[in-house]
Amino acid sequence: MGTLVMTLTPALAFAEEEAKSGDPYRSLGAALAIGLAAFGGSLGQGRTASAALEGIARNPAAQGKIFVPMIIGLALIESLVLYAFVIAFTKI
User: What is the pTM of this model?
Assistant: First the structure.
């Protein structure tokens, strides 16, 4: 319940500002875009870290070959979330 309140409260605050200027659904769309991007990014990062740790646990000698690509993959996943954040706020 707390997650739902924290997710929808900023959208309602933005919607109040948008109601004065015209389209109240622009800010709701931006809030949903950021929420979905963060949700998808966190799922992707969790699966990436899980697979990397499982691989390192099975073969500790391969840590060097697994760790660097994992960090690069996490950075790319995070960049997509940041792109969604920027696009959502430029459309408000």
Answer: 0.65
pLDDT in tens, 4-56: 555 656 655 555 555 556 677 888 888 888 889 999 999 999 999 999 999 99
Query: Any idea of the CA torsion for 7, 13, 14, 18, to the nearest 10 degrees?
Result: 140
Block residue for tokens 């919607």: 15
The residue type of 46 is: G
Phi-psi region of 48 (alpha: psi -120 to 50; beta: other; left: phi over 0): alpha
Distance CA 9, CA 92 (A): 16
How many angstroms from the chain centroid is the CA of residue 27?
17
Amino acid letter, residue 49: A
Q: Compute the distance between CA of residue 67 and CA of residue 56 in angstroms, rounded to an integer.
A: 9
Evaluate whether 70 touches 52 at the Cβ level (below 8 Å): yes
Is 24 strand, coil or helix? Answer: coil
